Amino acid sequence: MKSVLAAIFIFSLSLVWSQSGKEVVMEIDGEKVSKSEFLQIYLKNNPSPKYDKASLDEYMELFRKFKLKVAEAEALGYDSIPRLRRELEGYRKSLSMPYMVDGEKNDELVKEAYERMKIEINASHILIKVAENASSADTLKAYNRILALKKRIEKGESFENVASGPGGSEDPSVRQNKGNLGYFTAFQMVYPFEEAAYNTPVGQISNPVRTRFGYHILKVHSHRPARGTITVGHIMIAKSKDDTEADRQAAKKKAQEIYEKLKGGASFDEMAKLYSDDYNTNTKGGVLPPFGTGTSTRMLPEFEEAAFALKEDNDISKPIETEYGIHIIKRTKWKGLASFESMERELKNKVKRDIRSKRTQDIFVGKLKKEYGYKDLSAKRLKKIYPKVDSTYFEGAELDESLRTNKVMFVLDGKKFPQKKFISYLQANHKGLPVSDIKDVVNMHYKNWVKQCVLDYEDGQLEDKYPEFKALMKEYHDGILLYEVMTDKVWEKANKDTSGLKSFHTLNASKYTWKDRVEGTIYECKNQFVAMKVQELLKEKKDPVEIMSEVNAQSELNLRMKNGRFEIEETPALKGQKLKLGVNGPYMTDDKHYVVVVDELIPLEMKTFEEAKGAITSDYQEALEKEWLDELEKKHTVVINKDVLYSIGR
Fold first, then answer.
1. Strand partners, 229
2. What is the DSSP letter of 240?
């Protein structure tokens, strides 16, 4: 629900800001809502917008109710709840990223990423875990461990043995892959790891590289041209860890029978629909999301290899086995790496969201310093700080209190940044540093503090400098409040109000009924001959397990069975049939053959509270929302400027 609500309030940053930003389309409790705000949300939720009076009125009514709920949330103080403020700040941090980098340098990273996507790298790694904020002692310990492992390999031990042996890699997957990560390309690994992979020659071992996971060393095995992106369908016969040997053999037999039928011309889509155990895809021809170069989707290596081994669209693989089951794969579409021009926009967005964009921040900070008239006054201050920081600093010892003064370290846009703020920063960042020269450590922290202060200052100016960012933050703010107030006043209120739900059910019981149902067993048969065989076995009083065993003795595809209670009109196998107690059929519907055993005919009846609870809850929520909105109408004042509203689209 939350992700849906968030999506409602995201809009394109490319919209042109014009005079409409000053025109007021609505006032709620005296707070003005601009025409541009209404228009942006209207366009976002109407890909093919209409500007006639009826369409604008219809959407304004939805918008008015939305604004009423947000106004109530603000009146109740929801925007001051610490949890919600933190959530909004998290959104803000993410949304501000595109505004906090150097565009020109980012373009270079975009081109670099595209060039890397032309090549896929096969590499192994060894990981020694260390937290990002680990102490200097733990950081140094991890660094020395990874160096020791590297030396063992350089002295002749195999990378695989060192990775998987005692004291080796701490990547949990090493037990299965001995450190080998298979092939990957740009954006599929964290950026520092990607950098090391693309800058290490084939056959060589990299120097230790630090990521958020810890220290790694890599061995690059090979390069190959990008294989492109492939879309496939699959038919899966699932397996379970509890399967017996007989189960495994039956699954293999079933997969082979399906494969033989496909070779004989059977429809892949139809066979997927009938026999695939992947219920997310079996009604869609078994089609999976595209995977391959540059996609975020990764398949199991054996699945990928079988898929890319198919040379032509519509080629079908032999059954292959993975940890999830047995698969038959059909290639539906393959395409090579797209042109840079067609991928440029997507790559820019990826780079902006990726840690690699931080490489350009030093250049960006330099530009901001010029823009805001940065003046550094730190030279004398730092000289007095150095002697008062010793090795105990790395252990978290408190720094000399006399250092916490108001003496100015630098000036930015006329604002003074005092020494005491730097000392607090220095104190808070004592972890994760190898013990080294104190002066170098202080200088490094000062440089990072200045950078952070400049970026924080710029971050605080975004709403004033970029109207579209201000509007975007407003919409996220409103979306978060809307979700929270709706949860409290409608959704959770309905879920928790058991007595209210039961009373609502009593008053509206006639709405919640079962249509005519049957209780029994549905046998779905491969053909008429199988259906007649099932009918014959039923006459012999065979039970369902015996029937399945006998009919499927020669082929696992002959018969499928399900039993339980079924609404007749909602069950394709039963809809339109004149059913009676006992055996019905054989009959054919939707090109399928059925025999149905009816144990009980159940006429239309009221659903119990428990049976109807989901529908009751939904309807009760709707009733609560209407009642609540009626209260808000009386509590808040809304004025709509129809002239401004109807000017949209002119």
1. 292, 335
2. -
What CATH number is associated with residue 197?
Answer: 3.10.50.40
If asked whether residues 596 and 522 sit together in one domain, one would say yes
With 70 as the cut, is the pLDDT of residue 433 above it?
no
- If one counts every other C-beta atom within 10 angstroms of the C-beta of residue 129, the result is 14
Query: Does 73 fall in a domain?
Result: no
Whether 393 is covered by a domain: the verdict is yes
207-266 pLDDT, tens digit each: 999 999 999 999 999 999 999 999 999 999 999 888 889 889 999 999 999 999 999 999
At 558-584, the pLDDT tens digits run 999 999 999 999 999 999 999 999 999
What are the distances in angstroms from CA 372 to CA 177, 358, 407, 454? Answer: 53, 21, 20, 9
Q: Is the pTM of this model over 0.70?
A: no
Considering the domain architecture, whether residues 163 and 183 belong to the same structural domain is answered as yes
Secondary-structure breakdown of the chain: helix, strand, coil percentages, each rounded to the nearest 5: 50, 20, 30
Contact indicator for 96, 462 with CB cutoff of 8 Å: yes
Residues 169 and 247 in one domain: no
- 214 and 260: one domain? no
- State how far the Cα of 206 lies from the Cα of 202, in Å rounded to an integer: 10
**Domain termination site, one of 205, 225, 245:** 225
Angle between helix 53-75 and 609-635 (nearest 10): 90
Structural domain total, the chain:
4
Q: What is the DSSP letter of 324?
A: T
Q: Is the dihedral of CA 133, 135, 138, 143 positive or negative?
A: positive
Angle between helices 544-551 and 528-539 (to 10 degrees): 140
Chain-centroid distance of CA 614 in Å reads 27
141 closest CA partner among 91, 201, 79, 214: 214
pLDDT in tens, 475-502: 999 999 999 999 999 999 888 899 999 9
Task: Let me know whether 125 and 218 are in one domain.
Answer: yes
Sequence-distant (≥ 6) Cβ neighbours of residue 186 within 8 angstroms: 113, 114, 116, 117, 194, 294
Q: Based on the domain organization, do 135 and 216 belong to the same domain?
A: yes
- Its sign, for the CA torsion 605, 609, 611, 613, is positive
**Domain that includes residue 593, residue range:** 513-606
